[in-house]
Design a protein that fits this description.
A hairpin with a 5-residue loop joins strand 14 and strand 15. The two termini are 38 Å apart. The protein has helices at residues 6-14, 42-55, 87-101, 103-107, 125-140, 150-156, 184-197, 242-249, 311-324, 373-386, 400-403, 409-412, and strands spanning 32-38, 60-63, 79-80, 118-122, 146-148, 172-176, 180-181, 201-203, 208-213, 219-224, 227-236, 255-265, 275-278, 284-287, 293-303, 333-344, 350-353, 359-363. By secondary structure, the protein is α/β, with parallel strands linked by helices. It binds flavin-adenine dinucleotide.
């Protein structure tokens, strides 16, 4: 792999940018791998990278039915934060945030991580009670979070209507300074390039369609659109399509797939230098480096695999944004899109071996798995390589739906995701 550096930029500049090698090889499948990862999103590629880097397992293929990052990892609104309620979740998302903080150096790829801070505004007494509870839980575990008065919210987000007669009056809020955004494609490409350099093969346009088991029930091979690929271990890392592959493997998952939509406006001059989220409507917004306002709200109301936007969500989300940020009402909408997200009943992910021995999975991130990509990959790689779940990953087992040890972040953090 050619290292990216100031020197290589100058060198290539002098050569008319003609000498850059492809960032990763276009591989064709071999008959057999030690590990086959299904899903070339951020989590799948990060799993392959940490398998190779941390555990020296390099005979690995990542199968992607489309192009890498064409799923939710390239469709999200790129917010990274760790403000959760339960200690298990805080440990998980803090691991991710800590890994993100050094990811550009680790991957030798600029992921454009901008720790501009997150400001969450509460719009009622009840919101403020939830915020007080959250701040207490987070501060207890050392997360950088601070309570904000109405005046402090107004100062941090001047475009937000904090007047007493606003449609959604602001009662106060909190801020996480280490939160921010990163460039989603860069995270995917950075992991792909670094994994490829360690020997991982990335196979695009290759769909997994089924599994072949040994007489003991253990995984023997993955059936794909390119034929049968034998393996010792495999992992399903396909977000919104997890239930489809679980059904192909012969088990059911407590996962429901919904479309989640997002929007971007035309580019405008800098108007917002934090990520802002309001609890009354669940609408959140940040400004991209190009100047577009990137924003979204809640899930579509019904389960679906239809990966497209629709008018009712546009009306409710754009309407709520314009009511809360009156000056944004004059900006033109550029684009609206959707991704299919995997929602679990307790709004927490699943990182575990499945009932099929040798077949692992990482799913259930719902609307919030971009921020978790480094941790999801790190923990699943640990489980696959060692056969044991990592202490931080252990609470996120599939078995919790049998034992009842749920981690209900929808109730805890007040976010239905
Ligand atoms: C609109 C939107 C906004 C979001 N905003 C945020 C945010 O601000 N912050 C945040 O933290 N999270 C956010 N998320 C959630 C986040 O994007 C996801 O949780 C995360 O990207 C999931 O990553 P992944 O690698 O598991 O899945 P994906 O990136 O979806 O990758 C899964 C891949 O598997 C492939 N695949 C599926 N079936 C097969 C098969 N049979 N064979 C081979 N390949 C297959 C798909 O093509 C896909 O590329 C958002 C999601 C959406 C849709």
């Amino acid at each position: 792999m050619k290292r990216y550096s100031a020197l290589s930029l100058i060198e290539q500049g002098l050569r008319g940018q003609k000498g850059w090698p492809p960032a990763w090889r276009a591989a064709t499948p071999k008959p057999r791998y030690d590990v086959v990862i299904i899903g070339g999103g951020g989590h799948g590629l990060a799993t392959a990278y940490y398998l190779a880097k941390n555990h020296r397992v390099t005979n690995v293929a990542v199968l992607e039915r489309g192009w890498i990052g064409g799923g939710n990892s390239g469709r999200n609104t790129t917010i990274i934060r760790s403000n959760y309620y339960y200690p298990q979740s805080i440990a998980l998302f803090e691991l991710a945030l800590t890994l993100y903080e050094r990811l550009s150096l680790d991957l030798n790829f600029n992921i454009m991580f901008s720790q501009r801070g997150l400001v969450v505004a509460g719009n009622s007494r009840h919101d403020m009670e939830t915020i007080a509870k959250l701040i207490g839980a987070m501060q207890l575990l050392g997360v950088d979070v601070e309570e904000l008065s109405v005046e402090e919210v107004r100062k941090a987000v001047p475009a937000l209507d904090c007047s007493p007669n606003a449609r959604y009056p602001v009662w106060g809020g909190f801020r996480q300074r280490r939160a921010g955004t990163a460039r989603h494609d860069a995270v995917v490409w950075g992991y792909a390039r670094a994994a490829d350099a360690l020997g991982v093969e990335i196979i695009e346009n290759c769909e997994a369609t089924g599994f072949d088991r040994s007489p003991t029930g253990a995984i023997k091979a993955v059936e794909t659109s390119h034929g049968r690929i034998a393996c010792d271990k495999a992992a399903i890392v396909v977000a919104g399509h997890s239930s489809v592959l679980a059904a192909a493997a012969g088990f059911r998952l407590p996962v429901t797939s919904y479309a989640l939509q997002a929007f971007v406006s035309e580019p405008v001059k800098p108007v917002l230098d934090v990520v802002c989220w309001t609890l009354a409507t669940g609408v959140y917004v940040s400004q991209s480096d190009k100047g577009g306002l990137v924003f979204g709200g809640g899930l579509d109301l019904y389960p679906s695999y239809a990966q497209r936007g629709n008018l009712p969500i546009a009306q409710s989300v754009v309407g709520a944004l314009a009511e809360q940020f009156p000056s944004f009402g004059r900006i033109r909408l550029l684009r609206q899109w959707a991704g299919i997200v995997d929602v679990v009943h307790d709004s927490s992910p699943i990182i575990d071996e499945t009932p099929l021995p040798g077949l692992y999975m990482n799913c259930g991130w719902g609307t919030g798995g971009f921020k978790a990509i480094p941790a999801g990959g790190y923990l699943l790689a640990h489980h696959i390589a060692t056969g044991r779940s990592h202490d931080i990953g252990a609470p996120f087992s599939l078995n919790r739906f049998r034992t009842g040890a749920l981690i209900d972040e929808a109730a805890g953090a007040g976010i239905a995701h």
